[in-house]
Specification:
heterodimer, A: mainly alpha, B: three-stranded antiparallel sheet, 11 helices, 8 strands, flat
Chain lengths: ~190, ~270
């Protein structure tokens, strides 16, 4: 996305519409990426839509809702990765103290809610920040090990795999066979 | 829980939507208002820096200001979004010895400021109001206001014991400083005391940032910085206390005790 300022009249209002439509989803993604850190998640929402504003004319104007949404989420992923880069040179931080979520939406199946709540508890309580970031970039974003190593300043791809193995073991221990991993399905762990 | 196996990728990709549906603390309208304010500032591209050399920039290019224009903008920025009366500006520029036609002179200076401002931005961030002028922070980024905003958010994070976020916010606030506040601007009666007040605010945020870092167990990393700070601010009790804590937790208890003895003692009142 370009850094050139946007000056077209109406751009700001168009981005405000996109904000109203997609901010909540961006916030949820950012919350998951930041292991429940609400302050960081809110900042990522702001940074995401500021990037949308700067690139609106070139990348959003006249595009379908589906394309716009996909691009907003793509930018949100990039801003989350920026946060990971920011944290890489810093010591490990304590886990976020986010209470277990409660969902009353009847449209969401009870089984799905229970599973997602449980996964979130495992991520919040059991994974170290680095294990979480490696797991998130692997499984939520589909990034490869070389990319993850560069973002997190991890010296080798083997170390990335070690972090992911530990995350896998912790999640597997809690979920048993109800959660499947790439190596269970006869593939090498991690996306190609 | 369901016995149907779910892939980890599916579960991770659904996590964001799940959390978004659960978390009621995120208010779209509040976030949108914050975004719109930032967008307005981006459109005007105007920034006034006071935490260091006083500088007016538009899209990162400096706009040269005359001495009195700089002094007036500084006064308006420190009281952003409130009306500064013309007689207050007269007092700042000339104190007790204003020229005979001081109000007209002020009008001339303000006219020049207004001309510069209008040339610098589509949105006039300085506007005349009843009996004075107002600098609208909606159309101009002022680093002092940014500093205060970050400090407040850092305090909020501190109160919820989110020390990592508090440390980051305080660090961002301190990074706005490039030297002593209000450098290069003439200080009149109204601006007097602002430099000291700004420095006190900076030290307070610095003290809190170090407090947050200590809570995160960064004792050894802080020793060098704290030693230098205590040398520069020997009467600052908070910094000295931080140094003693950092020494103790770094296995240097004897030096921590010696540091206690170095603290300046208050002279008892007769």
């Amino acid at each position: 996305v370009t850094d050139e300022p946007s000056t077209c009249p109406g751009t700001k209002n168009a981005v405000a519409t996109l904000y109203t439509r997609h901010a909540k989803r961006v916030y949820g993604l950012a919350l998951a990426g930041c292991q429940g850190n609400k302050h960081e998640a809110e900042e990522i929402v702001q940074e995401t839509f500021f990037s949308v504003l700067k690139g609106y004319e070139k990348y959003f104007a006249g595009r379908s809702h589906e394309v716009q949404e996909a691009r907003v989420m793509d930018i949100a992923n990039k801003r989350i990765i920026d946060r990971f880069r920011y944290h890489r040179a810093r010591p490990a931080e304590p886990m976020a103290d986010l209470p277990a979520p409660v969902c009353d939406d009847p449209a969401v199946s009870a089984e799905h809610r229970v599973m997602m709540d449980y996964l979130w508890q495992v991520i919040s309580a059991d994974l170290t920040p680095t294990e979480h970031r490696v797991a998130f970039m692997t499984w939520a974003m589909g990034k490869d090990d070389a990319f993850i190593a560069r973002v997190l300043d991890i010296p080798t791809e083997g170390t990335v795999r070690s972090h992911r193995s530990r995350a896998t073991a912790k999640i597997r221990r809690r979920f048993g066979p109800t959660m499947t991993f790439p190596d269970d399905r006869g593939r090498e762990e991690g996306p190609s | 829980m369901s016995e149907t196996p779910v892939s980890i990728e599916t579960a991770y990709r659904a996590l964001g939507a799940h959390l978004a549906a659960q978390d009621e603390s995120f208010d779209v309208s509040v976030g949108l208002a914050r975004f719109m304010t930032r967008a307005d500032r981006h459109e005007s591209g105007v920034e006034l820096r006071l935490l260091g050399r006083v500088t007016l920039l538009r899209h990162d290019r400096e706009i040269v200001l005359a001495a009195k224009a700089r002094q007036i903008l500084t006064l308006l920025a420190l009281r952003a979004d409130t009306v500064v009366r013309t007689d207050e500006i007269v007092e700042e520029l000339w104190g007790d010895s204003p020229p005979l036609d001081s109000r007209r002179a002020v009008q001339t200076y303000l006219g020049r400021v207004h001309h510069i401002v209008r040339a610098a931005a589509e949105k006039p961030f300085v506007a005349p109001r009843e009996g004075g002028y107002v600098l609208e922070s909606r159309y101009c980024r002022v680093d002092v206001l940014e500093f205060e905003r970050l400090a407040v958010r850092g305090d909020e994070a501190w109160r919820t014991r989110d020390f990592a976020v508090a440390s980051r916010l305080f660090t961002e606030a301190l990074a706005l400083w490039s030297g002593p506040a209000l450098t290069g601007v003439r200080i009149g009666r109204r601006l007097a005391g602002e430099v000291e007040a700004a420095e006190e605010a900076r030290l307070l945020v610095l003290d809190r940032r170090i407090g947050a870092d200590l809570q995160l167990g960064r004792h050894e990393e802080l020793l060098e910085e704290l030693t230098g700070l205590v040398d520069r601010h020997p009467t600052h009790e908070g910094l000295r206390a931080h140094l003693m804590e950092a020494l103790r937790h770094s296995g240097r208890g004897v030096e921590a005790t010696e540091e206690t003895g170095r603290a300046p003692r208050c002279t008892p009142r007769p």
